[in-house]
Amino acid sequence: MAVMDTHTTSPRPSPQAPDASGDRLSDRLVRFRHRWIPTHIFGELLSKSWIDNIVPAAILVLIVVIFGSIVPNFFLPANVSDGTRQIGELGFVVLGMMIVVVGGGIDLSVGSNFALGNLLALALTNMFDLPVGLVFVAVVGTCSFIGLINGVLVGVLKLRAFLTTLVMLIGLRALVDTLLLKYALDISAGYYDNAVWDFAGSGDIFGVPVSFVVFILAAILIHIVISRTRLGWHIMAVGGSRRSAHNAGIAVRWTVCLTYVISGAFCGVSSFFYAARLGNGGSYPGVGLEVLALTAVIVGGISLGGGRGSVAKAVIGAMIVQIISLAVVQMGLQSGAGQLVLGLILLAAIGFDVRWVKNRDKILSRVYMSPTYFALPASPSTDAGSGSPYAANDRLGQVDVHGLGQLDGPEDVIFDSAGNLYCGDRLGNIMRLDGPDYKDARIFAHIGGHPLGMAIDREDSIVVCVGGMGLYRVRQDASVEKLTDETNRSLLSIIDDSRLRLTDDCDIAPDGRIFFSEATTRFDMASWPSDALESRPSGRIVCYDPNKKTTRTVARNLTFPNGITLSYNEQSILFAESWACRINRYWFDGPKAGTIEPVIENLPGYPDNINRASDGSYWVALMGMRSPALDLALRMPGFRKRMSQEVSTDEWLYPNINTGCILRFSETGEVLESLWDKSGTNHPMITSMREHNGRLFIGGIFNNRIGSLKLDGGDQTWTGPSSYWGRT
Questions:
Q1: What are the angstrom distances between the C-alpha of 194 and each of 197, 279, 401?
Q2: The pairing of beta strand 514-518 with beta strand 539-545
Q3: Per-residue pLDDT tens for 524-556?
Q4: Alpha carbon distance 54, 47 (integer Å)
Q5: Is 159 exposed, middle or buried (0-12, 13-18, 19+ CB in 10 A)?
Q6: Is the dihedral of CA 296, 302, 306, 307 positive or negative?
Q7: 31: which residues sit within 8 A by CB, 6+ positions away?
Q8: Which comes out higher in pLDDT, residue 280 or 569?
């Protein structure tokens, strides 16, 4: 069924397929089901990173319900207040452990470090009566120093994290026990009378314990750091692959070291609140805390392999573990029962994590693709001699060739006011061919990505859509400027559609506003066959205003919009919807502003770039022709779904882009002429054309050359810049 090869095929007419308005009951049922039961939403939900939080959140709710029903007085205000206070204390340690684990390590010394911080806090208050602020700094600083020792040993000297932190656990616990033997009586004999200290231990803010409030604020801060800052990205990168992070220029050793310092600091904060609450100077504080923290991290869904996790998961995990611990105590079970329950939960969580990581992508690959019902009208005839305006001919068979072998994928072509020709290539370059013969190509500027549709502004700068990157401007001095790579997010969108994934063509209004198309918000450039198979209207038209520096979406739910040109009335744009085989008009000014109306509703192929012609009409490229098999399959979403799951990608049935043609049509949508390369020798796949000085220059995303054809009766003086900006 594969049709994406570059072998030459002759244009063939499509038989008369049932019209989209057909009233067959089966078609109506399928259409109804895919309109009102949008199964693609499940795939979009599963693709979100936060979907991992659903499982631990469900476990949290289940635990609350179960223990709330079997434990007497579980929801008493006093129990809830005490529980949230302890969740706050445990939560700090879990946050620190989360950062270490995400960075690819593990910290088993948190319990002993916590005990040292608790002992130090009590000694500085009960024995030396120091100010609370100084005590806090001293405790956090000391625990951070312990973290620094771990970090240097594990991160800088590359010792094994498990063994190193295990030795630190044993050594610190021995140090704490030794200090307790010497100072326990002095600590217990002292009394620290300080309102701030008492507030930290037992106070609340609007009824919420102080430690829990501070914990939530810290969680928000760490979330911002992890998800929005360079440090957070570095930690994620190091945890995902240290070799790749090193190759990317990240200081891996010191990044790992810093995660242990942060973990130590959070142990200090936790021990400070614990000491203020209980004043317990015995040897019990911190015992088993490393197990609780590690269990919370894993139960929350944070991968032990590193590089995957979030603050939300850590918070949920901390709440789950602390609620279970409190419930076990309130139920009066033996002391070992709590550890047994937590151990079983940890084992189950690790098993689930391994299975989830292994199978999530497999599940996503099977459910994300969600073809919809899409019935095209019967295809117009392309038979030679049929009298159809689309009748095949060989007018492109004798085109002149420019830059042969020097170009790779010139999707669009454009001219500046000096008559120089520009196009993009697969290597992310803007190529230039100097007039008048346009024989040799050279690199004019490098952007990256794959430059697609282009436009020339008043200053002769090239505005270009770059697949996967957004909208860029290349000035005549070859400097590159990013204009925009995002737009306003849809209110009800599940996926984050603010980022531009596949911008593909653009044009410029007289006031400088740039209108450009994004073919799909669901797939990237390399996955366009998936979008074709779905035929789901997920594309849009976006407007960038350089004066206000704003970007907003002006039209949504379009079927692969792929070609834009400013109309001669300068109040609307014409745009192509490739998989829908039609051309529409969007009014951005005038009495019809904001409305869309059809121009050509049924084409025999898939329209791509549209550009002005010298006589007031327009050129449009058909990048490929419709086939009876695909037209039929578009009304069979179940068949296409099974094909996507059971057939190799390169064997899919999707648009035939081997043979294309160029059409010229009027302002009212009347097709005036067609130009074919019947043999497919010069331009088997056409994505763009641009009229210039009486010739038509042709580009193709799969071609290695640009073609040009002398137009009979063409205006020898007409150019794009003169039509738009009055320059010659």
A1: 5, 13, 88
A2: antiparallel
A3: 888 888 899 899 999 999 999 999 999 999 999
A4: 13
A5: middle
A6: negative
A7: 373, 375
A8: 569
Dihedral sign (CA 395, 400, 403, 404): positive
Q: Given this chain, do its domains 63-365 and 400-725 carry the same CATH topology?
A: no
Structure-token pair, residue 44: 């979009």
Q: Other CB atoms closer than 10 Å to residue 505's CB: what's the count?
A: 30
* DSSP bridge pairs for 573: 566, 586
Identify the burial level of 426 via C-beta atoms within 10 angstroms of its C-beta, where 0-12 means exposed, 13-18 middle and 19 or more buried. Answer: middle
Return the CATH superfamily for domain 400-725: TolB, C-terminal domain (2.120.10.30)
Q: Which of 356, 264, 373, 242 is nearest to 309 (CA)?
A: 356
Give the integer Cα–Cα distance in Å for 343 and 428.
53
User: Among 572, 585, 593, 555, which residue's Cα sits nearest to residue 509?
Assistant: 572
What is each CA distance from 511 to 320, 505, 552, in whole angstroms?
A: 58, 18, 16
Cα dihedral 601→607→609→612 (10° resolution) = -50
- What's the CA gap between 521 and 528, in Å, rounded? 11
Torsion-angle region of residue 623: left (phi > 0), alpha (psi -120 to 50) or beta? alpha
Looking at residue 334, its pLDDT comes to: 63
Averaged confidence pLDDT in the chain? 89
- Residue-wise over 70-88: b if at least 16 C-beta within 10 A, else e? ebeebeeeeeebebbbbbb
Of 94-98, 104-108, 254-258, 624-628, minimum mean pLDDT range: 624-628
Whole-number pLDDT of residue 2: 35
CB 728 within 8 A of CB 717: yes
User: How does pLDDT run across 49-77, given as a tens digit for each residue?
Assistant: 777 777 788 888 888 998 888 888 888 88
Of 91-105, 458-472, 670-684, which gets the smallest average pLDDT? 670-684
The rounded distance, in Å, linking the Cα atoms of 469 and 197 is 53
104/664 Cα distance (integer angstroms): 60
Rounded to whole angstroms, the Cα distance separating 670 from 95 reads 66
Contact yes or no for 568/616 (Cβ under 8 A): yes
The DSSP secondary-structure symbol of 394 reads -
223 Cβ contact list (under 8 Å, min separation 6):
310, 311, 312
- CA 280: distance to chain centroid? 48
| Strands in 657-713 per DSSP E | 661-665, 671-676, 688-692, 695-699, 706-710
Which residue matches tokens 């604020």?
A: 217
Cα–Cα distance measured from residue 293 to residue 320, given in angstroms and rounded to the nearest whole number: 11
Give the gyration radius of the chain's Cα atoms.
33
pLDDT greater than 80 at residue 33: no
Give the domain 63-365 fold: ABC transporter involved in vitamin B12 uptake, BtuC (1.10.3470)
| 582-587 sheet: strands from edge to edge | 561-566, 572-577, 582-587, 596-600
pTM: 0.74
Domain boundaries, the chain: 63-365, 400-725
Token pair for residue 555? 């039209």
Residue 5 has pLDDT above 50, yes or no: no
Give the Cα separation of 621 and 224 in Å (integer).
47
Spatial neighbors of 1 by CB under 8 A, at least 6 apart, are 629, 643, 647, 651, 652, 653
Side chain identity at 465, as an amino acid letter? C
In this model, does residue 653 exceed pLDDT 90? no
pLDDT level of residue 283 (50, 70, 90 thresholds): confident
- Alpha-carbon distance of 164 to 43, in angstroms, equals 43
